[in-house]
Design goal:
Blueprint lengths: L14 H8 L3 H15 L4 E11 L28 H13 L4 E6 L6 H15 L4 E5 L5 H10 L3 E3 L18 H13 L3 E3 L2 E3 L5 H12 L7 E6 L16 H14 L4 E4 L8 H10 L3 E3 L3 E2 L2 E2 L3 H11 L2 E2 L4 E3 L4 E3 L13 H5 L1
Parallel strand pairs: 1-2, 1-9, 1-12, 2-3, 3-4, 4-5, 6-7, 7-8, 8-9
Antiparallel strand pairs: 10-11, 13-14
Helix pairs in contact: 1-7, 2-8, 3-4, 4-5, 5-6, 7-8, 8-9
């Protein structure tokens, strides 16, 4: 097959075309993915985000991978929505430590009206710090999406999780169409989309291709594509799932890069279980975004000093953006944060 080298983004990928990309020899696949990556990005820059759980536990959904689901006994307690000042404090610390985007997640099926008012103020306050803002709050209707956009939210995260064919094996309380409808509301409101999936949930290789097909055929592509590796949490139905072959994970990163050449492809959950060599291959395959800090909502993430050492060994540096922080410093062009800035512990600060 013809492998894209620096393609104009397509939105009409067939499943057999994507499966053919997955079937390429590993070295050839990474070579093509690296070519595409370099055509659109600084190959040694990695976008750095921090993720904070603003409301944890007791989610009514039955996602089989999730420790926050109220359907499973994972030992995770229910917590109230965080206070606005506490969120702003942590966002400021993340910015000062080198993050360019601050992501906030709440364990809801969809936000209630009284909670949405608080969330909107969080967006405004974090945005005023000069950070990009991202939230994941469950399903949104068109009016909720419009209000978040008006408050200044840059990104909304809503993962598809897996292929349409395998989806019913993982979740029964929300349909695939529900997820696509939320993404459509977010896009119609003018916000950017963060949407990806989880690998290692017992899906077949064809399902990995099917997930990426759904994402790549969105028009436009999601600006951010998190590729998660299942974190097997005791008490969830997937706690004994078979381990994912690291090369299969890296292949998925490379194919995502080929299909969505201008998107940030993020190494997300599961990095704690990856050795440095696997992460290095993922960066070579086109991953250019990570979360840092000690936790991703409720699961472990590599410690910040480990990320710092890995960045130094690989010659990577945090991606920067021009920010305007009128609230505290006036107009400021952000300089590249030193790799040593990757020392922010969201979990400790939320204790």
């Amino acid at each position: 097959m013809s492998v894209p080298s620096s393609p104009t983004p397509r939105h009409d990928w067939r499943l057999d075309e994507i499966e053919a990309l997955f079937a390429l020899p590993f070295n050839d696949l990474l070579f093509h993915a690296q070519q595409v990556h370099r055509a659109h990005f600084d190959a040694n820059a990695v976008q750095v985000s921090t993720l904070l759980s603003i409301k944890t536990g007791a989610c009514p959904e039955d996602c089989k991978y999730c420790p926050q689901s109220g359907h499973y006994n994972t030992g995770l307690g229910k917590e109230k929505l965080l206070e606005i000042e506490k969120v702003v404090e942590q966002a400021r610390a993340a910015r000062d430590a080198g993050a360019s985007r601050f992501c906030m997640g709440a364990a809801w099926r969809s936000p209630r009206e009284r909670d949405l008012d608080v969330v909107l103020e969080m967006v405004r306050r974090v945005k005023a710090l000069g950070l990009e803002t991202c939230m994941t709050l469950g399903m949104l209707d068109d009016a909720q999406a419009a209000r978040l956009a008006e408050a200044g939210l840059d990104y909304y995260n809503h993962n598809l999780d897996t292929s349409p064919d395998y989806y019913g094996e993982i979740i029964t309380t929300r349909t695939y169409a529900d997820r696509l409808d939320t993404l459509a509301h977010v896009r119609d409101a003018g916000m950017k989309i963060c949407s990806g999936g989880i690998l290692g949930m017992g899906e077949a290789p064809r399902d990995r291709a099917g997930l990426l097909q759904q994402l790549a055929n969105l028009d436009p592509h999601p600006e951010s594509v998190p590729i998660n590796q299942l974190v097997k949490v005791p008490g969830t139905p997937l706690e004994n799932a078979d381990d994912l072959d690291p090369f299969d994970f890296v292949r998925a990163i490379a194919v995502a890069r080929l299909l969505m050449p201008r998107s940030h492809v993020r190494l997300s959950a599961g990095r704690e279980q990856m050795d440095d060599a696997t992460q290095a291959l993922a960066f070579l395959a086109g991953a250019n975004s990570i979360f840092y800090g000690d936790r991703l909502l409720t699961t472990e993430n590599p410690e910040a000093d480990r990320d710092h050492r890995l960045f130094e060994r690989l010659g990577l540096h945090p991606e920067t953006r021009d920010i305007t922080d009128d609230a505290e410093h006036g107009a400021v062009a952000a300089a590249r944060p030193a790799p040593s800035a990757l020392y922010y512990d969201a979990a400790a600060r939320s204790a």
